[in-house]
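Researcher:
Attend to token order:
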Amino acid sequence: MADSAARLGLHASGLAGLHAHFLVATALHARSGDIGSFVTSAEWLDVNYGRLLRELVAARLGGLSVHLIDPAATPFSDAATTAAVTCFEVGTTSKVIRIKRVADTNALGALDDGRRLDRQRLHDAPRWTPLVHRTPKPPAGYVELGELCRVHRGAVTGANKAWITDASDCTLPSSVLIPAVTRARELFDAPDGILSTALNLLAVIDLPADLDGFDSADRARIDRFLRAARQQGIPSGYVARHRSPWWSVRLREPAPILGTYMARRPPAFVRNKAAVGHINVAHGIYPREPLTGPTLNALTAALCAAAPTAVGRTYAGGLVKFEPSEMARIHVPAPEMLEAMAA
């Protein structure tokens, strides 16, 4: 497909779904005036590797409409997938494309209605789903989270079976056993939205790049662990092969606020008062400027209140995922409002 896309002057990602082949082939062989419709999964409206399809629909194929079926619906009884119906007319002179979200297949209708969006706007947009509904303006005094905080995904171990262990594991020095959130459930279940203790959490084995600082006894335990990891083939894993040295997971500093990023429910935001680490089951929220404890509490509460209306990427069955950049767009009170709330 890469060669075919190149003939159109476009780039094709190896991650693109099989339906991309059909749209590319249609763009190569269709003539002005040809009309058609595709029923595909809907992920291409938002994901990075869907850019090729968005460019085809917005420009070369002459998209007329896209009807997105609610991801929580089951458009096909024998497959867990999202669905979108895309209609096009090659060579159309229309400057708009209609986009509409419907509850289920029974609501599709004649496929000629929907919100009218400028074709060039769609061509330039990195995601299309947020354009389906008009985004309400934030309340006065609110800003995007990204203006106050950096949002970083958790560390990727590359092999949880090797790098996650019991916090009391006596086969390694306690200094390399970092209590961490390793399951999203640990945040969903946090009492009152506060992670106040590391009890019942597992630990990430976070070895430094330089092992020469350990005494002989601790270094012997670490060497035994590394030999066992080599025997399991851990260094040849994709993540381990792309970090140097392969044994150093490099957890970030504990984030004051942690947020889940994928579930069939709104994300949970939790105050990390226990100052534990986190892997890639959660995003860490780090203030750009120091915030007091009460202000952090107010920010966490504001995020929890905004979570039900936050816009992430929705997959089959209503699974919602938030990339760090998407979480950073959640609207929260400005610092002075947070301070007033904390007082």
The chain has two domains: 2-131, 142-207+249-342. The chain has twelve helices and 18 strands. The chain has a mean pLDDT of 89. The longest strand covers residues 63-69.
